[in-house]
Design brief:
binds zinc ion, 456 residues, Aminopeptidase, 30% helix, 2 domains, Alpha-Beta Plaits
C-alpha cells in the first residue's frame, strides 16, 4: 500500500492554513444580507468563494451552483465519487469560549475555532485526501467531486437545490459525523399535539424552546397558596434526586423543576423536566394535560403509546421537546427518531388514538430514513479504510438518530471525522479537533478514496 501517512505529513501545513482561513469567515446564515446568488447571506457566500478559490488555486475545475453549493472536480473517470461537506456553521456564545471562535488557535496539539470539526476541518481533510490520491496518477474509474453546501445546519436546502441542477454521483460519503462509518440514519419525525384543556387547578405549564433538545427546565403555575405545596414538592424533588424551586406568584404558586438536557436523538441521556414536573402535578391537580403526558409520553421509547420498536438500526426514540399550556390552550411538540424497518402507519394511528382519547388534535411530519446495507461495497470499503489506519477492529459500522447530507443523495453514508472517545464539542463552546486526529482522518480518507476509485 502507498505510504499515505507521509503524503499527509507533506501537506499538513498548507491544510491547516486552509482550515484557519475558512474558519475565519463567520459563515452563520444571515437573512439580512441575502442577495442574488447569496441565498444564505454574505458570510456564507464568502465561505463558498473561499472554497472555490482553493480548488482553482490547485488547478481543478470548480462550479458554483447559484450560491447554494459548489463543487471541485478532481481526477477523471466515467463515474463519480461524491464527498459532501458543509461550509455553514452554527452560531456561537462568545462568552462561553476561551478564545475568539473565528480566529483558529492551536493549543495542546488541538485546533480551536468554530467549524474546525463541523465541518470545515473534515471537508478540507477529505479534499486534501482526494488531491493526494489524484497526485499518484493511477488509472481510476471514478473522478472525485468534492461538494460543499452552505445551509446544512438549517435544513440542507443547499444540496437539495444543488441536486436539482447537478447529477447524483455514483456513490458518496459525507465527513460530518463519526468514525468508523454510519450506515443508517433514523427518520426524523415530529408530532404536534394541540387542543383546549380545562385548567382544573393548573394555570400554566411550559418548557423547552426546540423540539430536538430534552427540556432542562419546566415551569408551572398552580392555583392556591404555595405554603400548602412546599413540603410535598421538596419531598418529591429529594426522593427523585432533582432540584427546583417553589414560590408565591400572586395568589398562586409557581413551581420550577430542573432536569438535564440532552440531544433528542439520545433522550435517555437526559432527564425530561416536563415528565418529572407532571409526576408531581398529578398529586396536586386533576388536569388532563398532566394525565395525557403521564399516560402516553413519560418514556423515551414510546412504550406507553405502544409504538416502541427495536430494529436493525436500534430503538425508536421519542423526546417531548416543547410544551406550552396557557389560558387552557395546549401545544406539545415531540421529536422522534424512527428506524427504517418499523411500521410508520401504525405509529401515526397510535398517536391519533391517544389524542382522540383526550379530545386533542395531532399533526405530523414524517422524515426519511437512510439505510445502506452494512455489507455493501461502499460501507465495507470505508470501514476497512478506518480499520487499516486506526488499527481499531472493535468498532462496528453504526446507525445514528441524527441526520446528515447522506440523506440528500442515493448510496451515500456519513464517514468521520470524529473518533470514538474524543469529544470535539461540535455546536458547543470551544469546538476543537486534535491535529493528530485530523491527520489520521485525512489518511483514512486517502485509503477510502483510493480503494473506491482505482480501476479494477
Ligand atoms: Zn455538520
Amino acid at each position: 500500500m502507498i505510504d499515505f501517512k507521509s503524503e499527509v505529513l507533506k501537506i499538513k501545513d498548507q491544510m491547516l492554513q486552509d482550515i484557519k482561513d475558512l474558519c475565519a469567515i463567520p459563515s452563520m446564515q444571515d437573512d439580512s444580507t441575502v442577495a442574488l446568488f447569496a441565498p444564505y447571506g454574505a458570510a456564507n457566500r464568502k465561505a463558498l468563494d473561499a472554497m472555490l478559490e482553493i480548488g482553482r488555486r490547485d488547478g481543478f475545475e470548480v462550479q458554483d451552483v447559484d450560491g447554494h453549493a459548489g463543487h471541485i472536480d478532481i481526477g477523471s473517470g466515467e463515474e463519480t465519487l461524491g464527498i459532501l461537506g458543509h461550509l455553514d456553521v452554527v452560531p456561537v456564545n462568545e462568552a462561553g469560549w476561551d478564545t475568539n471562535p473565528f480566529e483558529v488557535v492551536i493549543k495542546d496539539g488541538k485546533l480551536y475555532g468554530r467549524g474546525v470539526a463541523d465541518d470545515k476541518g473534515p471537508l478540507i481533510a477529505s479534499y486534501y485526501a482526494a488531491k493526494i490520491v489524484n497526485s499518484l496518477n493511477i488509472p481510476t474509474k471514478m473522478k472525485t467531486r468534492v461538494i460543499f453546501g452552505c445551509n446544512e445546519e438549517l435544513g440542507s436546502s443547499c444540496v437539495k437545490y444543488y441536486f436539482t441542477k447537478m447529477p447524483y454521483p455514483t456513490m458518496g460519503f459525507t465527513p460530518d459525523a463519526g468514525f468508523p462509518v454510519v450506515y443508517g440514519e433514523k427518520a426524523g419525525c415530529s408530532f404536534e399535539i394541540t387542543g383546549n384543556v380545562e385548567k382544573n387547578g393548573l394555570i400554566y405549564l411550559c418548557a423547552g424552546s426546540r423540539p430536538n433538545i430534552v427540556p432542562e427546565t419546566c415551569e408551572a403555575i398552580i392555583e392556591g397558596n404555595h405554603k400548602q405545596y412546599v413540603d410535598s414538592f421538596q419531598k418529591f424533588l429529594s426522593s427523585n434526586n432533582l432540584t427546583g424551586t417553589i414560590e408565591e406568584e400572586g395568589n398562586h404558586t409557581k413551581l420550577v423543576l430542573k432536569g438535564k438536557s440532552a440531544h433528542a436523538s439520545t433522550p435517555e441521556e437526559g432527564i425530561n423536566a416536563v415528565v418529572y414536573l407532571c409526576k408531581y402535578l398529578a398529586t396536586v391537580v386533576d388536569n388532563k394535560v398532566v394525565d395525557f403526558v403521564l399516560e402516553y409520553l413519560d418514556d423515551y421509547h414510546g412504550k406507553k403509546l405502544g409504538i416502541d420498536f427495536n430494529g436493525a438500526m436500534g430503538p425508536l426514540t421519542m423526546n417531548l421537546g416543547v410544551i406550552s399550556y396557557c389560558k387552557e390552550n395546549l401545544k406539545i411538540t415531540l421529536d422522534l427518531r424512527c428506524p427504517h424497518d418499523m411500521d410508520f402507519d401504525k405509529m401515526i394511528e397510535k398517536f391519533q388514538t391517544a389524542c382522540s382519547n383526550y379530545q386533542l388534535n395531532e399533526n405530523h411530519d414524517i422524515g426519511k430514513a437512510l439505510y445502506i446495507d452494512p455489507k455493501s461495497k461502499l460501507v465495507s470499503t470505508l470501514h476497512q479504510a478506518y480499520v487499516d489506519v486506526s488499527g481499531d477492529t472493535n468498532s462496528k459500522p453504526q446507525a445514528i438518530g441524527g441526520g446528515t447530507y447522506a440523506k440528500s443523495m442515493p448510496n451515500c453514508v456519513a464517514f468521520g471525522a470524529e473518533f470514538e472517545g474524543e469529544d470535539n464539542f461540535i455546536h458547543g463552546n470551544n469546538e476543537n479537533i486534535k491535529i493528530d486526529s485530523l491527520l489520521k482522518a485525512t489518511e483514512i480518507y486517502c485509503h477510502a478514496i483510493y480503494n473506491l476509485i482505482k480501476a479494477d
